[in-house]
């Protein structure tokens, strides 16, 4: 099993008497999308700033790609890409001029730059925007350009702080497709977001509240632990209800009559549940599956941690 590419132990940041992040210990595995979630002011951005070496912790340790970020903050920056809540494109310069500026920071020039930017420009659909200034571009295109620049030097770890804030739903979907492409290529993505439904795109989710880690697991495990489970409506003929109820009763937490068939609740879509449902579908039943919403999961996480949602 590979070692974590991001690891913190007891990471803490105090500003005077105020503790913004307290005793944070997390591990992020290579090539995964790690969602770091919490309300505004919970400590998300402070954590990212410590992870990328922009803010020195008050206590604890942090390693990124094998580098001690506290001792060598400048060295780690060659290994990472970063995109903040406000896309770091310089106004007054065209997108192409921004590309050349950022490329210079990483020693990219000439044919190497043209090859790399040409591939990114095509992949992120930025060709028509190259001559435009950032202030004249729609928000969705600015976000894509910001992500393209953050990956220009092929970082091993990509930090994204609220990357889809302020863009429309369609642009958010396209943006997440690009993020998933990065992860598929082996890049580790550490992302903060207040759109809890975006956890569906992620391999792992950690919730922070008032600077403290209150949940840290795969999204499916969080659903099982902090929700009433999946509700599944099974539409079938009245004559098939009795036998279906017996079959589902062996795998479901609840089985209830509804006008068009049965409604069941299960903690997870595990193999026994799926096998029972497959048999019903093969016999002509129709399914409507409603999974627990991550907003409800978050409320229960906060309630379990003793914080009012």
The averaged pLDDT comes out at 92
How many whole angstroms does the radius of gyration measure?
A: 23 Å
Which residues sit in consecutive blocks of at least 5 with pLDDT less than 50? Answer: none
Q: What is the rounded distance between the termini?
A: 37 Å
Compressed to H and E, one letter per element, the order equals: EEEEHEEHEHHHEHEEEHEHEEHEH
| Total number of beta strands | 15
CATH fold title of the largest domain: Rossmann fold
Q: Which CATH top level class of the largest domain fits?
A: Alpha Beta
- What is the percent of helical residues? 25-40%
Structural class: alpha/beta
Which word captures the global form?
A: globular
Summarize, please.
This protein has 309 residues and is of the alpha/beta class. It has ten helices and 15 strands. It has two domains: 6-216, P-loop containing nucleotide triphosphate hydrolases (Rossmann fold), CATH 3.40.50.300; 228-291, Alpha-Beta Plaits, CATH 3.30.70.2030.
Question: What are the salient characteristics of this protein?
Answer:
309 residues; alpha/beta; Rossmann fold; Alpha-Beta Plaits; 34% helix; globular
Structure, described:
It is a single chain. With 309 residues, this protein is of the alpha/beta class. The chain folds into two domains: 6-216, Rossmann fold (3-Layer(aba) Sandwich); 228-291, Alpha-Beta Plaits. 34% of the residues lie in helices and 26% in strands. Helix 5 runs parallel beside helix 6. The protein is globular.
């Amino acid at each position: 099993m590979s070692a974590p590419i991001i690891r913190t132990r007891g990471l803490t940041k105090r500003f005077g008497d105020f503790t913004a992040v307290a005793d944070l210990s997390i591990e992020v595995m290579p090539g995964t999308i790690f969602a770091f979630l919490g309300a505004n002011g919970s400590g998300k951005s402070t954590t990212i700033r410590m992870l990328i070496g922009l803010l020195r912790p008050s206590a604890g340790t942090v390693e990124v790609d094998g580098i001690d970020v506290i001792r060598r903050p400048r060295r780690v920056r060659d290994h990472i890409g970063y995109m903040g809540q406000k896309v770091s494109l310089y106004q007054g310069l065209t997108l192409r001029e921004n590309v050349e500026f950022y490329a210079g920071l990483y020693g990219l020039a000439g044919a190497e730059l043209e090859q790399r930017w040409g591939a990114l420009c095509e992949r992120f659909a930025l060709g028509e925007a190259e001559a435009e200034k950032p202030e004249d571009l729609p928000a969705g295109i600015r976000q894509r350009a910001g992500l393209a620049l953050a990956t220009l030097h092929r970082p091993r770890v990509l930090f994204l702080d609220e990357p889809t804030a302020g863009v429309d739903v369609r642009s958010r979907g396209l943006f997440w497709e690009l993020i998933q492409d990065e992860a598929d290529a082996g890049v580790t993505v550490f992302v903060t977001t207040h759109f809890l439904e975006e956890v569906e795109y992620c391999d792992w989710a950690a919730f922070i509240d008032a600077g403290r880690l209150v949940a840290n697991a795969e999204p499916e495990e969080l659903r099982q632990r902090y929700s009433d489970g999946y509700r599944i409506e099974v539409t079938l003929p009245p004559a098939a209800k009795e036998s279906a109820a017996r079959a589902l009763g062996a795998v479901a937490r609840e089985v209830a009559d509804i006008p068009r068939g049965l409604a069941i609740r299960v903690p997870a879509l595990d193999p026994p549940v799926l096998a029972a449902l497959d048999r019903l579908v093969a016999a002509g039943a129709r399914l409507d599956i409603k999974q627990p919403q991550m907003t409800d999961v978050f409320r229960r996480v906060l309630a379990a941690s003793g914080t009012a949602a």
